[in-house]
Write a structure and sequence with these properties.
single chain; alpha/beta
Length: 248
């Protein structure tokens, strides 16, 4: 089995891809790509069981309805809900609220944060993969699944804050060492140094591990009662297992 992790950014320069090969209780990082354009992402998905993408795959239903009604003057803005509560309801998806509730973490808002630009790229990638015949549903049951590396790190008892950027390279080095302690069966091979030097590559590796958890059915499933909305907005696959359980 191969799983792929993509730390997606608006530009290829800050996008990284990690490909992990799984076999008989071991895992090996077999390819790293950075920078990575859209063609590289599509190429690396070839033969993959699951691709974990660190980026929102859709926008909040509430936000899109608001934009449509405002753009076409199709109705008044909600004047009854308290302003802050109303804005919050537009900014976050159901999956974002779920992450906040069960993991006490708040993902970036795809509606109001700069990550919206990256999500536009993710939408294009979904189109490119669909054109090749892949199932790219946003529930995570097809080729791709939305992942949140910080939530994975927190669940696996690793530091999920302040390891990004050149000023935190020491912390990143410690994270790579911690990953080696918790998952001695994961061979980073020739790519260990780049994992220690680039938080983008490290996040891509974690995304590939989260993709593996999704394949094994060891992530929180979407709420069946909200399935239609989640299929539009996207669903973050949160791990429910220890890191060692990924060995299979």
């Amino acid at each position: 089995m191969r799983t792929v992790g993509v730390d997606l950014a608006a530009q290829p320069e800050n996008t990284a891809i990690a490909v992990i090969q799984w076999d008989s209780g071991t895992a090996r990082l077999v390819e790293v790509v950075r920078p990575a354009d859209d063609d590289a992402v599509v190429r690396c998905t070839d033969g993959a069981e699951k691709v974990g993408i660190d980026c929102p795959l859709g926008w909040p239903d509430t936000f899109l309805t608001f934009l449509y009604r405002h753009h076409f003057s199709a109705g008044p803005v909600d004047m009854h809900t308290p302003p802050e509560e109303w804005r919050h309801s537009l900014a976050y998806r159901l999956t974002d609220e779920y992450v906040r509730e069960v993991r006490q973490m708040t993902p970036l808002s795809v509606a109001t944060d700069r990550i919206g630009i990256t999500a536009m790229r993710a939408a294009r990638l979904q189109g490119l993969l669909a054109k090749q015949g892949h199932d790219v549903n946003r529930l995570g049951t097809g080729l791709i699944v939305e992942v949140y590396p910080a939530a994975g790190l927190k669940h696996w008892d690793m530091d999920h804050r302040q390891y990004k950027g050149t000023k935190n390279v020491t912390a990143l080095d410690g994270l790579v060492a911690k990953l080696g302690e918790l998952a001695p069966w994961l061979d980073l091979g020739q790519f260990k140094d780049i994992c220690r030097a680039s938080d983008h590559v490290f996040d891509a590796v974690i995304a590939a591990l989260l993709a593996r958890a999704c394949v094994l059915g060891k992530t929180d499933p979407p709420d069946k009662a909200q399935r239609d909305r989640i299929a539009r907005e996207g669903w973050i696959a949160l791990p429910t297992c220890p890191l060692d359980a990924l060995r299979g």
